[in-house]
Design goal:
Elements (H helix, E strand, L loop, with lengths): L6 H18 L10 H4 L13 E6 L2 E6 H4 L6 H5 L14 E3 L6 H10 L8 H10 L3 H7 L5 H11 L5 H19 L3 E8 L23 H7 L7 E3 L8 H14 L3 E9 L3 E3 L2 E2 L3 E8 L2
Parallel strand pairs: 1-3, 4-5
Antiparallel strand pairs: 1-2, 4-9, 6-9, 7-8
Helix pairs in contact: 6-7
C-alpha cells in the first residue's frame, strides 16, 4: 500500500515561497518589531510628550510645560523634546536627563520668564547654559557681573603672549621643587614688566614718558633675559604690573593653588654703559598643603 502525504506538495510550496521572497526582498517594508523586540529597542515612532512634562534631572525633580522646554528651537532641550529623540523615563515615568540638576531650576526660570540667576550663581549657570546650548541665556549672562568683567579681563590677557603657558610653567616648576625638597611649599622668581625697553634712573630726566623710540641697533643692545623662572611682558594697555599680578594670583587660586607674592627688587643686570635692567622681580610662594 502506498501512502501519499502532502510533504512533497508542501516542499514545492515552500520552494515557490522562497523564490518569491527572494524576488520581492528589495521591495518589502521593514517588519514590525514584536513585543519582545520592542522591549529591547528604541521606539520606531516619534516619542509623544504630554503638555505638562515631569522631569528627573540627575535625581532632582522638576515639572514644566512642554512649550517651555521648546521655547528656543536651537537649544538641546528643544531638540530632546521635539519627538525626534528617545528620552528614557525613570520608575515613576519622569523623563530622565543624566545631568546634575542643581542649576536646572535657573535654566527653567529663564525659559519661563527670562529671569537671570543671582550673581553668586552666574558662572555655574553659564556652564549649564553652554551644555544645553541656550544662546539667549548665554548672551544675557555675559552682560552681567562677574562675566562682563571677565570679558574685559580676558581682553587684557589676550595682549599677553603665552600667558596660559606661563601659568602652567609656574605650576610645574613649583610642584617639581616641592617634591624634590619634600616640602610644603616652593618659591619661584617671576619677572613682570610692562615696558619693552628697560629703563634706568639716568634716563628719567631725558624723557617725559617711559615710551620712547630707539633705533634697531640700539634695541638689540638692550635685549636680554632676566635670570628668573618665568617672565611676563611686555604689553601695551592701561592695565599695569599690579593688574597682571592680580590676574596671575586669581587664575592660580581658581585652580586651588595657594599663592603669596612679594617684590624682592629689580633685575639690575648691566646692559651697556650706564644702563641697567630695572624690571621688577617678584618672589612667588606656592603652598601645596
Amino acid at each position: 500500500m502506498v501512502v501519499v502525504t502532502g510533504q512533497k506538495q508542501a516542499s514545492g510550496n515552500l520552494d515557490n515561497a522562497m523564490s518569491s521572497s527572494d524576488t520581492e526582498d528589495d521591495f518589502q517594508d521593514p517588519a514590525t518589531p514584536t513585543a519582545t523586540q520592542a522591549g529591547h529597542s528604541l521606539p520606531l515612532l516619534p516619542q509623544q510628550f504630554p503638555e505638562v512634562v515631569p522631569l528627573n534631572v540627575g535625581g532632582m525633580y522638576f515639572t514644566t510645560r512642554l512649550s517651555t522646554l521648546q521655547r528656543y528651537e536651537d537649544t538641546m532641550l528643544a531638540a530632546m523634546f521635539s519627538g525626534r529623540h528617545y528620552i528614557p523615563t525613570d520608575a515613576q515615568g519622569r523623563y530622565f536627563i543624566d545631568r546634575d540638576g542643581t542649576y536646572f531650576g535657573d535654566i527653567l526660570n529663564f525659559l519661563r520668564s527670562g529671569d537671570l540667576p543671582p550673581r553668586d550663581r552666574v558662572r555655574l549657570v553659564y556652564k549649564e547654559a553652554q551644555y544645553y546650548s541656550i544662546g539667549p541665556l548665554l548672551d544675557n549672562l555675559e552682560e552681567v557681573q562677574p562675566l562682563k568683567g571677565e570679558k574685559v579681563r580676558q581682553a587684557f590677557l589676550g595682549l599677553m603672549p603665552y600667558y596660559k603657558d606661563h601659568l602652567e610653567r609656574i605650576i610645574e616648576i613649583a610642584k617639581l621643587r616641592a617634591m624634590q625638597r619634600k616640602a610644603r611649599f616652593a618659591k619661584l622668581k617671576i619677572c613682570v614688566f610692562k615696558e619693552e625697553m628697560p629703563i634706568t634712573p639716568y634716563e628719567c630726566p631725558l624723557f617725559n614718558s617711559l615710551r620712547f623710540e630707539r633705533s634697531e641697533s640700539e634695541t638689540k643692545l638692550f635685549e636680554h633675559h632676566c635670570e628668573v623662572d618665568v617672565s611676563f611682558g611686555p604689553w601695551e594697555a592701561v592695565a599695569d604690573v599690579y593688574d597682571l599680578l592680580h590676574c596671575i594670583v586669581t587664575d592660580l587660586s581658581d585652580r586651588g593653588i595657594t599663592v603669596d607674592h612679594q617684590c624682592i627688587g629689580v633685575c639690575d643686570k648691566h646692559l651697556i654703559n650706564h644702563y641697567y635692567c630695572k624690571r621688577p622681580i617678584y618672589e612667588f610662594k606656592i603652598t601645596w598643603w
